[in-house]
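Input sequence (195 aa), recorded before submission:
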Amino acid sequence: MEATCCLLLDAIQEPVEASFQAEPGTGKPYMSYMSKYRNTVRLITLIHDQNVGEVNWKDGVKEIKYFVDDGDFEIMKNGLKTNARVLFAAGAKQLFIPTSHKLTIDSEDQIDAVIEGLDNEPARYRYTSFHPQGTCRMGADPKSTVVSPTGETHEVKNLYIVDASLLPTSIGYNPSETVYALAHYISDQINRAHT
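Predicted structure, token format:
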């Protein structure tokens, strides 16, 4: 399956704790990895995922259902390949792939074989969602949305939600500016309702 849609590459600076996603091992392998940490960079691939997940309450416990569909997985693989090529072009010597087992790419000619060897399996990859979106959709219909067009929840009066969960779906990019605009809009709605 060819996947070429909806891919954004981004470099991020992050805390040392994020290095745990590289799975360098423990003991000496980990100390060796960390001794070179200042020479590392992490590229991420942002996608506009097409998956539909659910967050439910079952017997008083939160239940999260989310599986990566095959089309999104192919887009992520294309992102990994592109990131790998960028990093090797910049002088990288070794790349750690964020899998549940140690997986590295040691040269540019290994990229396609290693990445194409990845299968879409639950709990195999270290996915991170920096900006969860779409879990508390905004709209007029209480049967299909969580909050009204003013940001107030349908079920609890005077409880407002002002974050990226109001978006109808993932937007495939950092939603901060959209959330700022929503916060401004909803704060106006709160002021109108309470003055």
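Checked by second reader. The longest strand covers residues 7-12.
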